[in-house]
Design a protein that fits this description.
Blueprint: E1 10-13, H1 14-19, H2 22-39, H3 51-74, E2 83-86, H4 91-115, H5 124-133, H6 138-146, H7 153-158, H8 167-187, H9 190-206, H10 217-242, H11 246-252, H12 263-270, H13 275-300, H14 316-326, H15 330-336, H16 349-356, H17 360-380, H18 382-397, H19 410-427, H20 429-440
Helix pairs in contact: 2-3, 2-18, 3-17, 4-6, 4-8, 8-9, 9-18, 10-13, 12-13, 14-15, 17-18, 18-19
Length: 441
């Protein structure tokens, strides 16, 4: 007589998943931003803030809430249990994800080092100049679609059965996962580092039985301090490449246009107070980087163009691809000629307004509905949908900063993780049924 051995379920945190409800994430992101603005050692130079900008942002958040409420009203369901059981991810699907992401990373490396001759090891200005001087190759475009799967690869690895995991697979998965951070360090792109950090924190929070060392307060404190130092170091190296010191930058940079340091911070930046001056330098840089967006938004809103782009800004890469197919590159010129300050964040709402004008809140209603649908789908089949939910949580949390649909190659990440989610959903029907059985039993 033979007995069927049922796999041990993967234990995930339903309590944490409840915290990723879209409106809740967006509100927490807003409160975090406002708190940081309140304590930041900065002063505002915006003397005539736009009242309509505040109205537009309020309508945007309201639209998100209305969309979520509409979904939950039409499709009421019980909240996810505190402990969420899931069938393990089949090894063949993990190997597909690992293979695609590894291929994407390899293609990206070849594109940068061989085809575009990016000077790795030199200053950030040289790296960026070479990237801007050379057009993206077909290899780069192909890699951009599949390499973002690497953001979900650690989660996929720990969703395997224990007997399917190995040290070799774990090492390869870690290297692939960390590649975007490495590339960001080499090119001085901090937004990509924020995405990697977000995935680390969200992945360790959803996994109940793994990555426990990342929950250690000491490890988190040390890691946070090192990351802030790394952010500042990257900024200093970029300033050296431009022949500028930090104090000058803190007063004249694009960020400082709306939020220069206040008198208290300026004192420590001018006077050599050893560790305190260094610490103030880090604090000023981080808060200028994170907080300037809201002030820029209040400054620029009334100066924005009156003609909507109908998605061509946030979804530029899709429009660009369609333009390449039909031989029309006018969208490239349209975006390049926008009268906005390049490289300066202006919250999620400036890109939203550029695309849809006062129809933006309607787009947010649609977004709230779809993201609530995704959140519910994640509770039912986390192995397929959690990585995409994690990234969309990053997008929502950072609404006061910028649009991470447009920034940090966000659209590529969304398309890549959506494609992988659909693939797992379609090819792991038995896993869906087993997950439902585990939760009933």
């Amino acid at each position: 007589m033979s007995f069927e051995v049922k796999p041990v379920p993967i234990r995930l945190s339903g309590r944490f998943l409840r915290r990723l409800e879209p409106v809740r994430v967006a509100v927490m992101g807003l409160l975090t931003y406002l708190l940081l603005v309140a304590v930041a050692p900065l002063r505002s130079t915006v003397t005539d803030p736009s009242v309509m900008a505040i109205v537009y942002a309020a309508l945007g958040y309201l639209g998100l809430a209305v969309g979520a409420l509409l979904y939950h009203t039409l499709f009421p369901q019980k909240a996810a249990p505190t402990l969420l059981l899931s069938a393990p991810l089949p090894k063949r699907l993990f190997l597909i994800a690992l293979g695609l992401s590894s291929l994407g990373v390899a293609m990206r490396i070849i594109d940068r080092l061989v085809l575009r001759s990016v000077p790795i090891g030199e200053d950030f200005a040289s790296v960026r100049a070479q990237l801007e001087a050379t057009s993206a190759s077909p290899l780069s475009a192909a890699s951009a679609i599949i390499y973002p799967i690497c953001f979900g690869i650690i989660f996929f690895y720990f969703c395997l059965r224990k007997e399917d995991r190995s040290r070799t697979l774990g090492i390869i998965s870690t290297i692939v996962f960390l590649y975007p951070s490495l590339e960001a360090n080499l090119s001085g792109t901090r937004s990509q580092m924020i995405v990697s950090l977000g995935f680390i924190l969200l992945t360790r929070s959803i996994l109940v039985d793994n990555l426990k060392w990342l929950r250690n307060p000491i490890a988190l404190t040390v890691g946070f301090f090192l990351l802030m130092n790394l952010f500042f170091l990257i900024f200093e190296l970029r300033l050296e490449g431009m022949g500028m010191d930090f104090y000058t930058s803190s007063q004249t940079s694009g960020y400082a246009f709306t939020v220069p340091p206040n008198n208290f911070a300026t004192y420590y930046l001018i006077e050599n107070r050893g560790f305190l001056s260094s610490l103030m330098g880090i604090i000023v840089h981080i808060t200028q980087y994170y907080c300037h967006s809201g002030y820029e938004y209040l400054y620029i809103f009334d100066k924005l163009p009156n003609k909507p782009l109908w998605g061509a800004y946030n979804f530029f890469h899709i429009y660009k691809f369609i333009g390449m197919v039909i031989g029309d590159t006018s969208v490239n010129e349209l975006i390049a000629n926008l009268d906005i300050r390049v490289g300066i964040f202006a919250t999620f709402f400036v890109p939203l307004f550029l695309d849809y004008h006062w129809g933006g809140p309607v787009f947010m209603i649609f977004g709230g509905f779809i993201l609530s649908l995704l959140w519910r789908a994640t509770a039912r089949q986390p192995t397929a949908w959690f990585p995409l939910t994690a990234y969309m949580s990053i997008v929502l949390f950072l609404i006061p900063v910028t649009s991470f649909i447009f920034t940090a190659q966000g659209l590529y990440i969304i398309v890549s993780l959506l494609t992988m989610g659909v693939l797992i959903h379609r090819l792991d029907a038995s896993g869906r049924r087993l997950t439902a059985t585990m939760r009933k039993g």
